[in-house]
Amino acid sequence: MQAVKQQAPSEALKGFLARYDGLRVRLPGNAAPRDAAAALLRDKGLPTPKEEAWHYTNLRSVAALDFQEPIADTQAGVDLLALLPKVEGPRLIFVDGRYRPDLSTSPDGLEVKSFAGTGVFGDLTKPERDRVVALNTMLTEDGIIIDVPAGFDAGFLMLAQLTSGRHRRVASHPRHRISLGEGARLVLLEVSAGIGEYLNNPVIEIAVAEGAHLTHGRLQQDSEDAFHLGTIYADTAANGVYDCFSLALGAKLGRTEIHARLGGEQAAVHLNAAQIMGGNQVSDFTTAISHDAPNCPSRQTVKSVLTGKARAVFQGRIEVARIAQKTDGYQMNQALLLSPDAEINSKPELEIYADDVKCSHGATVGALDPEQLFYLRSRGVPADQARMILVRAFLTDAFEAVAHEGLRDVFEHAVEQWWATTGKDAEAPAA
Amino acid sequence: MLEIKGLTAEIDGKQILKGIDLTIPQGEVHAVMGPNGAGKSTLSYVLSGREGYEVTGGTATFFGQDILAMEPEERAAAGIFLAFQYPVELPGVGNANFLRTALNSVRRARGEGELDAVQFLKQARAAVKKLAMSEDMLKRNVNVGFSGGEKKRNEILQMTMLQPKLALLDETDSGLDIDALRIVAEGVNASRGPNFSALVITHYQRLLDYIVPDHVHVLADGRIIRSGGPELAKELEADGYAGIIGEAAEAA
Ligand SMILES: Nc1ncnc2c1ncn2[C@@H]1O[C@H](COP(=O)(O)OP(=O)(O)O)[C@@H](O)[C@H]1O
Ligand SMILES: [Mg+2]
Q1: What does the pLDDT look like over A198-213, one tens digit per residue?
Q2: What residues does the SUF system FeS cluster assembly SufBD N-terminal domain cover (chain A) (predicted)?
Q3: Angstrom distance (rounded) from CA A322 to CA A54
Q4: Other C-beta atoms within 10 Å of A71: how many?
Q5: Is the shortest distance between the CB of B39 and ligand 1 below 6 Å?
């Protein structure tokens, strides 16, 4: 066998491993998966661009930093609540990776358990293949565990992950598990936000049983100095629906990685997203959809709006197993570059082993149309508002995919807010 | 009101307008006719502030204000409206929203109060009805999937709502059948009055049977080569542009 040159662990990893050694006996649950994760990280380190899956997103800036343990400070969470979108309904609040029942309101008719209480890891993730998940596995302290009973419509629920890097550069690794029983329904709004420099590394495992329907909205509004590495593994049984829309606006460097499996006939998966970035932000949306059963549709509309020197990545992999005949896959990736220095990297990957499938994918890159801009301005609409209208129009088909009105309002509002604070000024036209 | 003196303009370094002199007093409707490529659309774009059209000389004032120094939206607020020869499609932008945004933008700039959704819809529905458009057009995306005639009517709808002091109508008649032409002309005529002027650009005399102009100008190769009353349009219809352009060349 070829000798593998072992790299000295990065600054960040040294800290993470040392923390694990110190915390090991106090962390909840079975130590075996955590030990395996630690061994893997010790051996291989954090992902690097030499690996195909990380070709476009370099974690060097994360690896170079020394992250601290969050201090349990009960005051800390309160002011962070102002970062949450204004939306009615039950909310489960995490601060620095720990569940805060004092700030949360439980949903009616649902039992909410915490990972800290049960310590049981799910079996959907692949920490041995994904070292960002391994990092979460090694260090996670808490998360939410929700089982929506069969046939129950749990309505709307917000799950918020707030992090404060104001006094210390902290890292948090929440670990959630959400299961929907047969025919159950849930609308979940997952929010990430915070202040200062920190790493937010949530992992969610999702199981959608037969005929169940999960609407999953993600709003990533982490601080402009933060790093966001979010991973989702979702498994959908026959006639089940996993409908996800992910809006990334925040973080200096962010990656959302979603692995979705269609495990029974007529299951449906939607992985739609919008990444709206400016300055030097980097945002990565990486997905892997596995069609493991016949007659399943999967849909992806991914839009990037980039100003300044922002860069976005979309990697969309669709695997169609031999058994998955009559698969109907659709993937569209579109970028709107509002500045000459903005950049989009995209990589669609189709791996098809069945012979009777319909898989289409397309990609476009463009700028704002000066003729459309002039048309709006000639009607009296000020230039910045005209640009916003066209940006919003560009996002239309991604937003239309969000069927839940309350969720759509949250996303629309977040985009308007982004425009008012960031987008508008970034793009005054060259005179 | 609108006073253009010695206006020259170029696109990509190519001179298109070669010295335009034109005055449109308040309340008057003037027609500009001329062959394809004469510079009629260029004149309308220069007056409404489209990028890429570089004014190299001359002046254009509107109520004494130098409009050439103004942004397109400022010109709109000042009361200039361009009905596009080729109206632009805006996928993802609803027509009603577009109209309301435009209307409230100019109202704000003019110091008038904004209209709420109910007030707006009332006005818009009335205007739509007058133009014999279906209400459905308010719900559709701006000009997307509209027929040629629907697009032109949509331009006139915007004009009616925005109540400009000066409308530049660039070949609003092209692509319209006779019924649509009549409706569009009625829309324009309904706006006529002491506070409304128009520059009606057309290739054909036909439109001027319905919107009878106070003056007619012939634009050829970037210059106004003749001006006269409505009878000039009839003369052009009978003799074509070649004769007039020839005369002008001889006279020069
Ligand atoms: N975007 C452009 N780039 C270069 N030349 C143009 C452009 N638009 C118009 N022109 C030229 O300018 C001249 C006048 O065009 P236009 O104003 O559209 O004429 P009209 O409206 O009278 O038919 C034509 O020769 C045309 O080819
Ligand atoms: Mg023209």
Answers
A1: 999 999 999 999 999 9
A2: 33-152
A3: 27
A4: 11
A5: yes
A343-352 and A297-306 beta bridge pairing: unpaired
Is the minimum distance from the CB of B34 to ligand 1 under 6 angstroms? yes
Q: Is the pLDDT of residue A76 over 80?
A: no
The whole-number average pLDDT for the span A24-51 is: 94
Answer for the pair A383, A389: CB distance below 8 angstroms, yes or no: no
Q: Is the pLDDT of residue A71 over 50?
A: yes
Token match 């996928």: residue? B91
d(CA B203, CA A70): 75
A236: CB partners within 8 A, 6+ apart:
A208, A242, A260, A261, A262, A263, A264, A267, A268, A269
How near does any CA of chain B get to the CA of A311, in Å? 24
Residues 6+ apart with CB under 8 A from B137: B95, B128, B146, B150, B154, B157
Of A119, A127, A126, A116, nearest to A37 by C-alpha is: A127
Mean pLDDT of the A131-137 span: 96
Query: Per CATH, which fold does B2-89+164-251 belong to?
Result: Rossmann fold (3.40.50)
The domain limits of chain B are: 2-89+164-251
* A379 contacts on B by Cβ (under 8 Å): 76, 98, 102, 105-106, 158, 162
The contacts found for A2-9 with CB under 8 angstroms, 24 or more apart, are A6/A43, A7/A45, A9/A42, A9/A45
Which atom number of ligand 1 is nearest to the Cα of residue B171? 21
Burial class (CB in 10 A: 0-12, 13-18, 19+), B115: middle
**DSSP character for A198?**
E
Q: What ligand is nearest to the CA atom of residue B86?
A: 2
- Distance from the CA of B35 to the center of ligand 2, in angstroms? 9
Q: Which ligand 1 atom sits closest to the C-alpha of B52?
A: 1
Tell me, what's the ipTM? 0.97
pLDDT over 60 at A430, yes or no: no
* pLDDT tens, position by position, A168-197: 999 999 999 999 999 999 999 999 999 999
Least confident window among A98-102, B72-76, B178-182: B178-182
| Contact (CB, 8 A) for B40 and B32 | yes
Distance A366 CA to ligand 1 centre (A): 25
B77 pLDDT higher than 90:
yes
Tokens describing residue A249: 């606006």
